[in-house]
Amino acid sequence: MITNLTVKSFNRTTLLAVAPFLGIMLWLLISDIVVSLSEAAFPAAIAEQAPLDSAKVEEASAGLDIANLIAAETRQSIQKQLKLYNQTNAEMAKISSMAASNAMKPLLIYDRNITGKLGKPASTIESDKLRAQLFYKQAENFKYYALKVQLKSDGAMTMTLGKDSLGSSETTLAAVKRHKAVAGVNAGGFADGGGKRYPLSTTIVDGEYTGGFEATYADLFFVGLNDNNELIGGKFNSRQQLDAKKPKFGASFVPVLLRNGAPTKIPTKWQTSPKRAPRTVVANYKDDQLLFLVVDGYNESGSSGATLGELQLLLQRFGAVDGYNLDGGGSSSLVFNGRVINNPSDGQLRKLPTHFLFFK
């Protein structure tokens, strides 16, 4: 129940709370207050602004002129430096070219000398991979062919198995065509067995031993190329000894003909068995170019072709460093530009287990 005392108390409290606000409202109504802002509170019109200080304007203009002058001089300096830089680069390129040209001169002179000893090439195949030059030659007792090869890349030369399979065989011409090579020469010796034809002794293809390592015996040697396209060869008593040469591919036969430009002693057996025959030999030059000699002969009876001693003299005359006798007789094969160059003593090319191939 709400009593009169409670109502009076509430009214008194409310009046006290709103009294200040009522007083302010009454004061505003009876007073005459005007709020005004000075002219400084508003931006002056542009036309009425004070004129600029001419001294400061001249000073600023002079500063701009100096800045433009410095910019122009800087631009000219940069252009001069750029011109000097380009001239220096051109001169350095010219010096580098001359240095490279001068460095090549001894090699070019050397190549000219060894090529001159062979005569004029009958045909040349040249590409980024190799340069192969074919020469037709005539000696007193036989006709022969020289193939000088400069290898310019890793893929310029390889050795393949007949039909790419151990125990299989094919002619050098068939291998050339199948692998799309530009030239080919017969490689190592072979042995027949069980209706198959196997490479003789240690043989390496694509860096792998096809039938394991076999230590040198009966005057056999291994000859092939290493990772740097350098001719490596000789007699090896252990696989570690051969592996140290880093062979990429190679084959075996007999005998070694030349060492460091000097003829080696030919074993008696190989001087007369046969005395004369179709032959294939491989040698190298000081600049790592290769030289193959392929000799014609009518048969393998010893009545035609070249002796190993005569081939030693030819290799020396042509300036070779190391020389090796490859399989000969009816195995001698030389293919150049898709054509058989030599005259096979069998009347046709013999099927062989290994071939050296060259690629353009």
What's this model, at a glance?
Residues 180-359 form the Phosphodiester glycosidase domain. This is Exopolysaccharide biosynthesis protein. The protein is α+β, with helices and mostly antiparallel strands and 360 residues long.
Give a verbal description of the structure.
- The chain is an alpha+beta fold and 360 residues long.
- The chain has a domain at 134-358.
- Helix content is 33%, strand content 26%.
- The chain has 6 helices and 20 strands.
- It has helices spanning 4-30, 54-118, 172-179, 239-243, 268-272, 308-317, and strands spanning 123-126, 130-138, 143-151, 157-161, 183-186, 190-193, 196-199, 204-205, 208-209, 221-226, 231-234, 247-253, 256-259, 262-263, 279-284, 290-295, 323-326, 334-336, 339-340, 354-358.
- It has an 8-stranded antiparallel sheet, covered by helices on one side.
- β8 and β9 form a beta hairpin.
- The mean pLDDT is 87.
Task: List its salient traits.
360 residues; alpha+beta; 6 helices; 33% helix; Exopolysaccharide biosynthesis protein; NAGPA
Give helix and strand order, one letter per element, not per position. HHEEEEHEEEEEEEHEEEHEEHEEEE
Largest sheet: 8 strands, antiparallel
Number of strands: 20
Distance between the first and last residues' Cα: 122 Å
Strand percent estimate = 25-35%
- Structural class of the secondary elements? alpha+beta
Low-confidence stretches: none
How many distinct helices?
Answer: 6
Mean pLDDT: 87
Order of strands, widest sheet: 1-2-3-16-15-17-13-14
Query: What is the overall silhouette?
Result: elongated
> Which radius of gyration do the C-alpha atoms yield?
48 Å
Helix content: 25-40%
